[in-house]
Amino acid sequence: APHEIEYTLTFFSDGLVPADQAANQQVESTAPETPEESQAPVEAGPVSSSLVPSGSMELAAAREFTVDYYEGGYAVICIHGTDRYLAVPAGAQPPEDLAEDVTVIRTPIENTYLAASAVMDMFVSLDALDTVCFSSLSADSWYLDVPKRAMEAGEIRYAGKYSEPDYEQIVAADCGLAIESTMIYHTPEVKERLEQFGVPVLVDYSSYETEPLGRTEWVKLYGLLTGRQEEAEAAWAAQQEAFSQASAPSTGKTVAFFYITSTGEANVRKSADYLPKMIELAGGTYIFKDLGDEDDAASTMSMQMEEFYAGAKDADYIIYNSTIDGELASVDDLIAKSPLLEKFKAVQDGNVYC
């Protein structure tokens, strides 16, 4: 359907020179770094000389965060090798010589603004919704029943989407933490504004985990922040058990996972993404075996329908990503997205899922 999109273009002119001088002058680019570049891992100094180490959190699959414990109930969290946080227990104070790049989070967290929607499921499994005060999704946007009911009952309030939060409402409630996805780096001024108002911001990188269990192990981090460590260990154990039961030997059946964009392209998962790995664990074979770079942070890519047809037409099963594009009521709804889909083997065999 026709719709309007507003763009803001920002021009950086410090490095510009008149055209007649450009041939004789090498201009150094002053363009800002991309989120990926600005988040490159750096060598970090000590958090504080007064903190005494007492151990580290054991992690089996997660690679995008670490937790080091210190005497007195303190914990240092490092996310994506760049962002450092100090979890300060109730009644304690941060050390006076705390490194400038370390963000203080007072635990257990209270009045949280949860803008990373994928994290909500972990709070549900921890029985920690009482620590969430605000959501970046409205009640009718939630796909999880528990937060949906909590919002309908007024226990969790809508405080604006991640790019346009209601600062006044968040600050007035003495928000203890804003949990954002990496989408926040597209609007860095929001993160800066929240921090200026005294609201610590934690950026969740669980979507960067390439192993399915790695994503779920982030429940341990949120168990630490909410004071639900025992519940976190129980949730993690349940995920490991489900993981072991779901794993199956290869059936040789191939699977395509995608959705059709508004421009008519097929958006697919890259081969190194966690979803193709889940397909393989369940005994299937992802139809695109060598799509994308193993080290590329982006998990998806779009391709022209003709290219998608050539690579996926013989897949035994196709799964339509209705999380992004909305559920389909019938195969006819799917074919309406693109007539080419009618020629797919899975469509002709009736092996189509959302």
Radius of gyration: 23 Å
Largest sheet: 6 strands, mixed
N-to-C series of helices and strands: HHEEEEEEHEHEHEHEHHHEEHEEHEHHHE
Please tell me the overall pLDDT. Answer: 89
CA-CA gap between termini: 22 Å
General description of the model:
The chain has 354 residues and is an alpha/beta fold. The chain has helices spanning 19-22, 35-38, 120-125, 145-152, 167-172, 188-196, 212-216, 219-226, 229-246, 274-281, 305-312, 322-325, 331-337, 345-349, and strands at 53-56, 65-70, 74-79, 83-89, 102-107, 112-114, 132-135, 157-158, 178-180, 201-203, 253-260, 266-269, 284-286, 300-303, 317-320, 352-353. The strands form three sheets. Strands 11, 12, 13, 14, 15 and 16 form a six-stranded mixed beta sheet that branches. Strands 1-2-3-4-5 form a five-stranded mixed beta sheet, with helices on one face. The protein starts with 18 loop residues before the first helix and ends with a strand.
